[in-house]
Write a structure and sequence with these properties.
The complex is a heterodimer of chains A (180) and B (813). Chain A is α+β, with helices and mostly antiparallel strands and 180 residues long. Chain A is built from five helices and five strands. Chain B has 813 residues and is an alpha+beta fold. In chain B, helix 12 (375-393) packs across helix 13, helix 12 packs parallel to helix 21 (746-763) and helix 17 packs parallel to helix 18 (553-579). Classes of the chains: A alpha+beta (180), B alpha+beta (813). Chain A: It holds the Pfam family Fer2.
């Protein structure tokens, strides 16, 4: 099947097998190896990306389902050499060690902050429940997410990612801008 | 040691490593793609024990994209290749050959049976379904005591036994203490306990991956490994390849925790297939493969006997272990439980000690190093039985520890297991921890809850621990029959422009060596932190090393960096003296400058590096280079210690355990980077707590791993863990110039018994004296009710025995 996806601002058109997972399409066809695979049961969240403004585990989406969509990966977050505030916060708070879970953890954290701009510790822990880390014990990750929230204007995540209170839905857009 | 105005060592530097990791510019092995590369997929046995009658690969070979399918006999027709075990713990240790792919029999579910080579990973995976293996079932051996029972079926028929080895230490025989049987027979109080260390999965986040390129000048292997240098030498030895024709690269490695200390059949397989096909090959495992095929950790039954006086002085300790090796021996597997031999006596002055460990084969995934390797098991055993002894004697558990631990005036102290602890201050760490924890306040609350029969009971768990880090003095490893030394290598390259490359044989996979080593070198040479690049993990750039495990990197590898720096300064001093036309003895080196004593004349080390590069005017006989290297062999282990305190709230109606607070005060000696140290503590605590509460590798009666995915194996998430209070005291190690000790495993070693002690402490009024790990709500609830059934009696039964686990029948059932 022929699909077109826009990944980190670049449009790609490819023929893919219908069974191809989005994460494999990203890694193997498009060379977007910043997004990684940590498990085969959708538990670890290492492959988390944003699909039309929502975080998804890219191992749980078929590439063909992403046809026509905009995808942001960890590689597309920094703009003009400027780290996204969540990336910066992960560095500032030593929220990573081996760094393998980090792409997914950061993408999920941005999504969490888009939904809840001022999460308390409990909300961060619950919001990251689907992303596993074996190195940090999560303490500095939680700290980083709350630190990022402090550094961003309320609703820091990309404007378009926030749930519209009235409609309860989000609008699709290019996501992951550098801290607007 | 020289120092810049503000020393780098001790500074809370943010990590250099992060820049690429937070932006996705990573170099995981699986990211690698080479021209013409083909992919491997391994067919794994679904049977735990069976004879292979036939393997039909013909249909698989016809599948689209498939280049070849190989069985063990195809890759190794003579059956000559055996995966290496580097630790023959006794001369008569039984060591079965572990083939690259099963030949004749399969001995655990997950063992490789055949490998498909195809153009894509998906095509290789697809073709696995078309391989037809005809198995003839053999009886499955599971559980430590079952395996040792009279008439038990054998994992390896040809060995005639499931007993791998028996390793003993006896203080009476060694002359380091008294006779333990005598101590027990004369004791006022003797207590026996059986504890179980369940089997765990290391669960590094990056699945293992190997790429081999046979088209390069050297046969080049990228691998997600902790041990690139060991892998290079072992690959040469295992396959008879010339070592100088092999290059191994550990690029970015996504965690290890001991789980990547190995030489994998898949690495050897990739080397063989790459040579056979002449093409670059890649193997990347799925998580489900990791769970069954990568080595597991722990899995012991511990029988402890402790002897004491009525007033709480420990007079003897006898430790008898059964340790499950799985179906084969891993690279250092047999030695893992033996490391515990030196740690059961822990921080205590125990006059008589006996340790015996029987290693056992079963039809399960092999076990090997997992964070702490032998020391968490020992710490758990001693800290649990100290609490049991305290209860038996009616002595406050911390008081009992105080009565028996080595006081700070007594260092250096040679223990009953013959190690000499150089430094420590258990009182200081304990006092600080008790203050931060509000020990007295929580004890008060515990009494109140007990008095009012609160359905939520409070428990306080203690773990006062030490460990041996900095593996290891080579002579000690020699005395333990380990197949290598324990030194580490470092080199420093002074570049013409004044920048520095530091080469280390330590192989980081999340630890932050690039940052920490830069801090060390910055202080040593007076070069700015930013001007230093640390190179590691590639046998081209880092030609020599013994890699990263056992909390050895800083205490051994970091000291090698210091020693290499000292050589650079010594070399530079000669040239600087020549440049400034003075005697070497007149020069002082500080903050990166050689200054003529008593003057303001100075030359920066960067200028000396440039002069050495130009070499136009060097003193007679001096080579034009400041580059230096050093190999450092530690004179002793280092001995971090600490006091961990855990408060649990237990809902006695549901068995749910909530960690109310966790405080630890660790003494890891001098700290190079407090941010990194704190991060190591957090991660270590999470893993140790996970052993206590969540994780377990469970086999069914047929030997199938039923907790074989992340959906079944309970790795804690952020929602499952609390925030920890971590703090430090600092007693420098006296056996290395930085005074450092090591921190990589401390949290894991200390935390497991703290949690279980807290659970048992909460439930002691219910007659509970143990809860097996992981202490799930079901087990805790059962323990409470077993106690009640015994009408407030001693509650001698453990709370386990649920699910597929029964301690009375051995380990992994």
């Amino acid at each position: 099947m022929r699909i077109t996806v826009t990944v980190d601002g670049t449009s790609y058109t490819d023929d893919v097998e219908p069974r191809t997972l989005l994460v494999h399409h990203l890694r193997e066809r498009l060379g977007k190896v910043g997004t990684v695979v940590g498990c085969d049961t959708s538990n670890c969240g290492a492959c988390t990306v944003h699909l039309d403004g929502h975080s998804v585990k890219s191992c749980s989406v078929l590439a063909v389902q992403a046809d026509g969509s905009e995808i942001t990966t960890i590689e597309g977050l920094a703009r003009d050499g400027q780290l996204h505030p969540v990336q910066q916060a992960f560095h500032d708070n030593h929220a990573l060690q081996c760094g393998f879970c980090t792409p997914g953890m950061i993408m999920q954290s941005i999504d969490l902050l888009a939904d809840n701009p001022e999460p308390d510790e409990h909300a961060v822990r619950e919001g990251l429940e689907g992303n596993l880390c074996r190195c940090t014990g999560y303490q500095n990750i939680v700290k980083a997410v709350r630190d990022a929230a402090d550094h961003m204007r309320p609703g820091a995540g990309p404007e378009a990612e926030r749930v519209d209170e009235a409609t309860g839905s989000r609008t699709a857009s290019s996501v992951g801008g550098g801290g607007e | 040691m020289t120092a810049t105005a503000e020393p780098e060592v001790g500074k809370a530097r943010l990590r250099k490593e992060d820049a690429r990791l937070i932006t996705g510019r990573t170099r995981w092995t699986d990211n690698m793609s080479l021209p013409g590369m083909v992919h491997l997929a391994v067919l794994r046995s679904t049977m735990a024990h069976a004879r292979i009658v036939n393997i039909d690969t013909s249909a698989a070979k016809e599948k689209p994209g498939v280049l070849a399918v190989y069985t063990g006999d195809d890759l190794d027709p003579g059956g000559a290749i055996g995966m290496p075990c580097a630790w023959p713990i006794t001369p008569d240790m039984k060591s079965p050959r572990r083939p690259v792919l099963a030949q004749g029999t399969v001995n655990f579910a997950g063992e490789g049976v055949a490998v498909v080579v195809a153009r894509s990973a998906a095509e290789a995976e697809d073709a696995l379904a078309d391989i037809d293996v005809d198995y003839e079932e053999l009886p499955v051996v599971l559980g430590l005591e079952n395996a040792l029972a009279e008439g038990a079926p054998l994992v390896h028929e040809e060995l005639g036994t499931n007993r791998n080895a028996l390793w003993k230490f006896d203080s009476g025989e060694a002359g380091s203490g008294g006779d333990v049987e005598e101590a027990i027979s004369q004791a006022e109080v003797v207590l026996k306990r059986r504890f179980r260390q369940q089997r765990l999965v290391p669960a590094f986040m990056e699945p293992r991956s190997v790429v081999v390129d046979p088209t390069a000048a050297q046969l080049t292997m990228w691998s997600s490994t902790q041990v690139p240098h060991i892998l290079k030498t072992m690959s040469a030895l295992t396959l008879g390849l010339p070592e100088h024709k092999i290059r191994v690269i550990a690029p970015d490695v996504g965690g290890g925790f001991g789980g990547k200390i190995a030489v994998l059949p898949e690495e050897i397989m990739a080397l063989l297939v790459a040579q056979k096909t002449g093409k670059p090959v890649k193997w990347t495992e799925s998580r489900s493969e990791t769970m069954t095929a990568a080595h597991h950790g722990r899995d012991q039954i511990q029988d402890l006997t402790i002897a004491a006086t009525r007033d709480g002085r420990v007079t003897g300790l006898k430790v008898e272990l059964l340790a499950d090796m799985g179906a084969y021996l891993g690279l250092v597997g047999p030695g893992v439980p033996i490391l515990g031999a030196f740690m059961f006596n822990a921080i205590y002055k125990i006059p008589a000690y006996h340790f015996a460990c029987t290693n056992v084969f079963t039809n399960t995934t092999l076990t090997d190093a997992y964070r702490g390797a032998g020391r968490p098991e020992a710490t758990f055993g001693i800290e649990r039985i100290m609490d049991e002894l305290a209860a038996e004697l009616g002595i406050e558990p911390m008081e009992l520890r105080r009565k028996n631990w080595i006081t700070h005036e007594e260092f250096p102290y040679t223990t009953v297991s013959t190690l000499t602890y150089d430094s420590g201050n258990y009182e200081a760490a304990t006092d600080k921890a008790m203050r931060l924890f509000d020990y007295e306040g929580l004890r008060r609350e515990q009494r109140e809850r007990r008095e009012r029969n609160d359905p939520v009971q409070l428990g306080i768990g203690i773990s006062t621990f030490t460990e041996m880090c900095g593996l290891a003095p080579s002579r000690v490893l020699g005395s333990l029959d380990y197949g290598a030394g324990g030194w580490e290598h470092a080199a420093i390259r002074m570049l013409p422009t004044g920048k520095v490359e530091v080469i280390t044989g330590s192989s980081a996979h999340g630890q932050g060596h690039e940052t920490a080593w830069s801090q060390i070198v910055s202080d040593q040479l007076g070069i700015p932190f930013e001007d230093i690049e640390v190179l590691h993990g590639d046998t081209h750039s880092s030609p020599k090393g013994l890699d990263t495990y056992g909390s050895r990197s800083l205490a051994v590898g970091g000291i090698a960096v210091v020693k290499a720096s000292e050589k650079v300064v010594a070399k530079a001093k000669k040239i600087a003296a020549h440049m400034m036309e003075c005697a070497e003895d007149d020069l002082e080196f500080a903050e990166g400058k050689f200054t003529v004593a008593g003057t303001d004349r100075s030359t920066a080390i960067q200028e000396v590096a440039f002069a050495a590069f130009m070499a136009h005017d060097l003193p007679e006989g001096v080579e034009p280079s400041l580059d230096s290297e050093a190999v450092y062999d530690p004179e002793n282990f280092s001995f971090p210690h600490g006091t961990h305190l855990c408060a649990t709230e237990i809902d006695t109606e549901t068995g749910r355990v909530r960690l109310r607070s966790y405080v630890c005060v660790d003494d890891v000696g001098k700290v190079v980077n407090p941010v990194i140290v704190e991060g190591q503590m957090h991660g270590g605590l999470a893993q140790g707590i996970a052993q206590a509460l969540f994780e377990e590798a469970v086999f069914d009666e047929g030997g199938t791993l039923t907790s074989g995915t992340f959906a079944d194996y309970l790795l804690p998430s952020a929602a499952d863990l609390p925030s920890f209070t971590t703090d430090r005291t600092e007693t420098p190690s006296t056996t290395n110039p930085l005074g450092v000790k090591g921190v990589g495993e401390a949290g894991t070693i200390a935390s497991t018994p703290a949690v279980i002690n807290a659970i048992v402490d909460a439930l002691r009024p219910y007659g509970v004296t143990d809860v097996e790990m992981p202490a799930t709500p079901m087990r805790v609830w059962r323990a409470i009710h077993t106690g009640e059934t015994a009408a407030g009696g001693p509650g001698a039964e453990a709370g386990g025995g649920l699910g597929s686990i029964d301690a009375n029948r051995g380990g992994a059932q």
